[in-house]
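FAQ: What does a ligand-bound record look like?

Like this one, built around flavin-adenine dinucleotide:
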Amino acid sequence: MEADVVVVGMGPGGEQVAEDLAEGGLEVIGIEAELVGGECPYWGCVPTKVMVRAADLLAEGRRIPGVAGSSVVTPDWDPVARRIRGEVTDSWDDAAAVARFAGKGGHLVRGRARVTGPGSVEVAGESVTARKALVLATGQRAWIPPIFAAVPHWTNRDAVAAEEVPESLLVVGGGAVGLEIGQVMARFGAAVTIVELGERLAGPEEPEASALITEVLRSEGVEVRTGAVIERVEPWGETGASVLLEGGEVLTAERLLVATGRRSDLAGLGVGALGLDEQARSVPVDGRMRVAPGVWAVGDITGHGAFTHVAVFQARLCVADILGRALPEADYRAVPRVTFTDPEIGSVGLTEAQARAEGGDVTVLGLPLSGSTRGWIAQAEGLVKLVVREGVLVGATSMGPSGGEILGLLTLAVHARVPLSTMRSMIFAYPTFHRVVDSALWSPPSSASKMAGA
Ligand SMILES: Cc1cc2nc3c(=O)[nH]c(=O)nc-3n(C[C@H](O)[C@H](O)[C@H](O)COP(=O)(O)OP(=O)(O)OC[C@H]3O[C@@H](n4cnc5c(N)ncnc54)[C@H](O)[C@@H]3O)c2cc1C
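The answer part, i.e. the structure of the complex:
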């Protein structure tokens, strides 16, 4: 087989590249080992946000007493499982995505490809040659530390496909995946314990965000263990696991969710044939997504942020480069990150610690969300923290019911290097959640200490 372009991996990044180039008139072969669409629509972003939406509704219902009457909230997982199976994943069937790609003129090959040289791969015993471009977009998979390999465990895929909520769930890993699924399951009635090796949940985020999400989860009945070293894991009951922590505590649960991060399988992909290190965590790319002459890579595999919006952003640059169109090179200064807990943790750019480590004149401004009228009205937990260097916003965290939405304006400011003086001259609608940014901009630096954990 031969084509102008061969795309390996048809997740959000690869699919975008393949569709755009096919639409642009090139002959494109897309190779996919599982489902066209990748992790995001079938086991990641979309189904987990359907779960989060349902769990948020339960939480809102439970907030009625004392504010708007009384409520009895009876969780039912059936509609969630049905919606994920039916509306979201079409029972994990990618026929619609396959038809869309074919409709744009692309040719799909099913199978797991292995790179054999700069413009060639092998799939299902056949050799496939790229005349113009080989694009690697094979993403990442859940990484299971060896200690869990021999015990029954869930990954995000099992949690998304669950037909029932377990009575108890032990979540290992206090990052975005563990926190989102843990809170959802707790709100649906599971007894949830989150075990995190690091000193705090949401480790890469600001300490104030970690402190607040820990406080909120505990107030909802979730058990949290941080700085927790797991010494032994054994099967427990028919489906569960028993975990021994350093110090002697034993935790048992009907289900164990391993959410300890995600890794690319570069050895399986055979990137050694391109002269690359197969033990590395990612494939190095330049600002146009080039790996080597005739080879590009996009998405999680590049290590520039495991987010669908990064994969799609990179796909745009990759397509432009292959078609010989000029676009500014990739700039990752303002990659937005959202953990869809309630409250959402939105963040962009540098944390305070990162900014201070880089040096310069760093100032921090911040307020709890209750410091804004809307936050106070909604009795909502949250905060905003602004990291300013030499008078320019270089990082921000917005936590709250719409933390991810408020992040939009902060992302623009970090991306466009907007001086604080310009932000202060802007008019923010009253009383919106995002107006907390205005309050923070005008607050004395000392008010940052009123944020959770500060
Ligand atoms: C639980 C969860 C929730 C998430 N929520 C969000 C969110 O809210 N927002 C967000 O932005 N991101 C979210 N993400 C991350 C997001 O899903 C990924 O960043 C995104 O899917 C990456 O796209 P990709 O194209 O790089 O790779 P993937 O989506 O991983 O797709 C890669 C594809 O390549 C295929 N493949 C792999 N190896 C080969 C091979 N050798 N040959 C052929 N095919 C191969 C795979 O089968 C897969 O279909 C979430 C992830 C998880 C796990």
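Follow-up question: can I read anything off the structure? Yes, for example: The mean pLDDT is 96.
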